[in-house]
């Protein structure tokens, strides 16, 4: 793996762990696609650091479990009448 990819993977992992953010928000923050972020933190990170990978896996699983709630709140906010 090239050095700049390994550095990006570690930066993404630390950002997601510190901010407890989603793949989508991390992609926006770093200016890369969410597919790249997902591949970095699910495949490449496992080769670099198993401990970080385990932490990221927990955060991603929590985000996946909560996504239907977030979607409902976003729809509610969209159609809620403005006062």
End-to-end Cα distance, whole Å, is 54 Å
**Domain module tally:** 1
H/E element order: HHHH
Number of strands: 0
**Count of alpha/pi helices:** 4
Q: How much is the average pLDDT?
A: 94
Structural class: mainly alpha
Uncertain segments are none
Largest sheet: none
SS strand fraction: under 5%
Cα Rg: 15 Å
Shape: elongated
Give the fraction of residues assigned to helices. Answer: over 70%
Q: What key attributes describe this structure?
A:
83 residues; 84% helix; 4 helices; mainly alpha
What is the fold's blueprint, element by element?
Blueprint: H1 3-19, H2 23-30, H3 34-48, H4 50-79
Helix pairs in contact: 1-3, 1-4, 2-3, 3-4
Structure description:
The structure is a single chain. This protein is an all-alpha fold and 83 residues long. It has one domain (3-79). The chain has helices at 3-19, 23-30, 34-48, 50-79. Helix 2 (23-30) crosses helix 3 (34-48). The longest helix is centred in the C-terminal third of the chain and has 30 residues, at 50-79.
């Amino acid at each position: 793996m090239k050095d700049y990819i390994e550095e990006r993977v570690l930066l993404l992992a630390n950002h997601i762990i510190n901010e407890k953010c989603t793949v989508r928000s991390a992609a926006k923050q770093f200016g890369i696609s969410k597919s790249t972020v997902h591949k970095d933190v699910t495949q490449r990170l496992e080769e670099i650091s198993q401990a970080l990978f385990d932490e990221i896996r927990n955060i991603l699983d929590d985000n996946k479990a909560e996504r239907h709630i977030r979607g409902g709140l976003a729809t509610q906010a969209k159609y809620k009448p403005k006062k």
